[in-house]
Amino acid sequence: MYTLKLCSLFPLSQAPRLPRAGETIHGHKFFIGFGGKGANQCIQAARLGVKTAMVYFVGQTSDAATGAASITVNDAGENAIVIVAGANMLLGREELQKALPAISHAKVLVCQLEISPQMSLQALRMARNSRVKTIFNPAPAIPDLDPDFYKVSDVFCCNESEAKLLTGSSVTNVEEAHRAGQELLKRGCGSVIITLGPQGSVVLKAQESTSKHIPVTAATAVDTTGAGDSFIGALAFYMANYSTVPLEEMARRANQVAAVSVQAVGTQTSFPFRHNLPAELF
Ligand code: RIB
Ligand code: NA
């Protein structure tokens, strides 16, 4: 499995609520961890027991520093993130070409939008040309997403807010997610998964006309940061190692992995290893 990623350090503050513009508030916990959606997804997949690799750029020039993100988490476990992609936006065609051997020999390629969108798209095309399965996570979401992203995604996986930005319709419940999923599916992807936090996820496949809701067992959320990454990392693991399992079942299991991650603070620090999880997930 090979993943394109942002490599970053991120300061995380826990506070009773998220600050408003111009406001300073007291928080009660602060630490610096590792992050970047690609890195998080890669770590989660590796912890479940699959060989992983990453393509990324760190700041070595005067032009850009290594990517970083600042995160605030409120008492409800919700977060607000500002990411500064830095050097990752300098990853270009030349670097990508050097990664071709690794991409073409992978079982699954996962891409996000923390590098330049055109480079993510190019990587997905490279994977497709080598018959490597692709997962595209349009995060952080951009309104003017190149329509080709849909055509090169075996699985197009996003959360509620990303689905809302891409479809222009509100996605707050299962019903709305079914509708948004249908709209995204029409744009040409093999399948669509919309993650809905405590409401689980919806799974739609191009070959079937049904949209399935996959609920998740309730978990008390301490910090939901990176839960989507935990889900995608787990999904990539299942697609690589359990390729005959139906996508709905992969989503059900990935939901359970992500539900473990929300019960502890941080992203990678909270992602479970295979030995922390019930045997029925493997
Ligand atoms: O998805 C959560 C991640 O997004 C954080 O780890 C942060 O690094 C940002 O990139
Ligand atoms: Na967490």
UniProtKB/TrEMBL annotation:
GO terms for cellular component: cytosol; nucleus. Its EC number is 2.7.1.15. Gene3D superfamilies: 3.40.1190.20. Its cofactor is Mg(2+). The active site is at residue 229. Keywords: ATP-binding, Carbohydrate metabolism, Cytoplasm, Kinase, Magnesium, Metal-binding, Nucleotide-binding, Nucleus, Potassium, Transferase. It comes from the Eukaryota. It is found in: Cytoplasm; Nucleus. Residues 21-60, 61-272 form the Carbohydrate kinase PfkB domain. Activated by a monovalent cation that binds near, but not in, the active site. The most likely occupant of the site in vivo is potassium. Ion binding induces a conformational change that may alter substrate affinity. K(+) binds at residues 223, 225, 261, 264, 266, 270. Its main location: cytoplasm. Catalyzes the phosphorylation of ribose at O-5 in a reaction requiring ATP and magnesium. The resulting D-ribose-5-phosphate can then be used either for sythesis of nucleotides, histidine, and tryptophan, or as a component of the pentose phosphate pathway. This is Ribokinase. It comes from Amphiprion percula. The lineage of its organism: Eukaryota, Metazoa, Chordata, Craniata, Vertebrata.
